[in-house]
Structure formats: structure tokens, C-alpha cells
Amino acid sequence: MNLREYIDQHPRERRREVRQMIADALGVTEPCVRHYANGTRSIPSRHLIPIVDATRGVVSLVDLLGEFKAA
User: What residues does each domain of the chain span?
Assistant: First the structure.
């Protein structure tokens, strides 16, 4: 499951909260995570493992690497 799918699986009214939880784990803003999920901004390699951890492995490293673009 990729980051966008992970966020979209939550009810619409909770998605901002989910993005904020991930943002807090990464030390970035919620809009930054929104950009990562939408593909408008590449996910830096230093954020890959923290995303896996923040999503408790639901978003896997393999899935992220499939989308990974060096940033």
C-alpha cells in the first residue's frame, strides 16, 4: 500500500489528522505530507523508514521504493 492509499483508507474527516501524525514523525508540515502522498513532491530518502514506522508497516518500504525518486 502506498502513502496515498494509506491516507485515503481513513474517513475523509480524519485524513488531515493522519497526515499530521505522519508529519510529526517526519518533522515536516502536514501540507508537505499531502504533497508526498499526491506525488507533487518527491519523498526524500531520509523519510522512507520513518513513514514505514509511522504507519506501523502498513506502508511498506518496498511500496515506497517503488515510488521513490531521489530528492
Answer: 3-67
Split at pLDDT 50, 70, 90, the class of 9 is: very high
Rounded to the nearest 5 percent, the helix, strand and coil shares of the chain are 65, 0, 35
- Distance, in Å, from the CA atom of 34 to the CA atom of 4, rounded to the nearest integer, reads 8
Cα–Cα distance between 11 and 71 in angstroms, integer?
Answer: 30
- Report the candidate in 54, 37, 47 with the shortest Cα–Cα distance to residue 70: 47
For residues 32-41, give the mean pLDDT: 95
Rounded Cα gap, residues 18 and 13, in angstroms: 10
Report how far apart the first and last C-alpha atoms of the chain are (Å, whole number). Answer: 21
Burial category of 55 from C-beta neighbours within 10 Å (exposed 0-12, middle 13-18, buried 19 and up): buried
